[in-house]
Structure of [Pyruvate dehydrogenase [acetyl-transferring]]-phosphatase 2, mitochondrial:
Amino acid sequence: PRRYPPAETPRRRYRAGAQSGPMAASQMSHILRTNEYSFGVHELDGRNASPVLGFDSNLLPSNVPSEDRRSAATCLQSRGMLFGVFDGHAGYACAQAVSERLFYYIAVSLLPLKTLMDIEEAVENERPVFPVLQWHKHPNDYVSTDAGKLYFSSLRTYWQELIELHAGEHHKDIGAALVGAFQRLDSDISLEAQVELGDPLSHYTPLRVAISGCTACVAHVDGLDLHVANLGDSRAVLGVQNGNGTWSALTVSNDHNAQNPEELERVRLEHPVAEEKTVVKHDRLLGLLMPFRAFGDIKFKWSGELLSRVLDARPDILSANEYARMLPANYHTPPYLTAEPEVTSHRLRPQDKFLVLATDGLWDLMHRQNVVQVVGEHLTGIHWQKPVSGTSFTLGQMHSLLAERKSRASTAFEDHNTATHLIRHALGSDGFGGLDPRRLSRMLSLPQELARMYRDDITVTVIQLNTPIIEAQCKAAA
């Protein structure tokens, strides 16, 4: 989630003294574990033939309601599993819609022609349609119902067009399927917001979705093939275990913001030279938006005339969302924002042990190497403290530090859920590889109006990979 002009409030280091006593350990754990979810992949014939052992996921809100969303599903009519994290801004509506819809678009894109035709025949004859996804959801994960018919109609139009386009030939390029699914969903979000459905209440949801926006980071795992489709500044990082047991972080996505020189150059080249100084200002798109790629956000995509016409017809939307009120300055050559993801492919190896997908709320607090270290230690049960050499300590300070470490050792692995464990460390790190309960208590007890100044919504999914299966498949492919 992001604030808009004149500038986003930078995250602060929390140094204020506790206004009340520290939270009890049980209370902190209750807050951290409220939205945690774990799933283990079922064995087939007594043996798990999947490269994925299972996953742990968690979401810790800062905003109320949270603007982050997450999804995980098994593709039932094709091979593979899908995982995604979605970071909303200007509200949660777009992130909610994308988290529910995107995997269907991806699954349909990957289906063989015959399967698509069977689905269309079943719908045409009003027979039940066999499922294409098995969802893995936490009971707290909200599912909207007010636009279900519209969403299904758009999805059906998409698979009908795929049937016509493929003309009997199914493409197996997963990267192209991911790109096509992302772009088609964003196009549908845009079109749905333009159609006057007669019922103002029915039209409210599509327009609200399109006005808000969200980034997305999605992983598709099929055998040894890992594909990550990223849009914005959420991130995917592989945890790699080296031969000597140490851990390395391999980033398998790129951020789409002003800190990425290639992305900055792409945006500038897509617009006239006369806009070079205005298209990105203060590290933001048109001085307003931090991510350079996102779903929704029609005020960076539509023509000025279309924006005015649609929004003038629904003034109630403007009163409910200040973000939509004003056309950006220097808005000359839209679209400025794209929903085309950058797809990264990676062939899984035995040393690849897990994949972390997380919104920027985590990466703002932890470096990717620290993330991999914390997760790797949690999965293996081996905890390596950060050395204290190079820092000046008195003997008394050293004794105090060692005593604190000893007292914290018993709580180092108290979370069964790896995503929860990671969020606990992100908020409560002592800077030396351990946990500071007092810091964790302060970060979790911040009032809502202060919480956003110190941290963002944090959503994490940790996918644990199945090393024996990956080893066997690597040998078979050699």
User: Anything to note?
Assistant: Residues 2-10 have pLDDT under 50 and may be disordered. The chain is about 40% helix and 20% strand. The domain at 25-477 is CATH 3.60.40.10 (Phosphatase 2c; domain 1). The chain has one domain: 25-477.
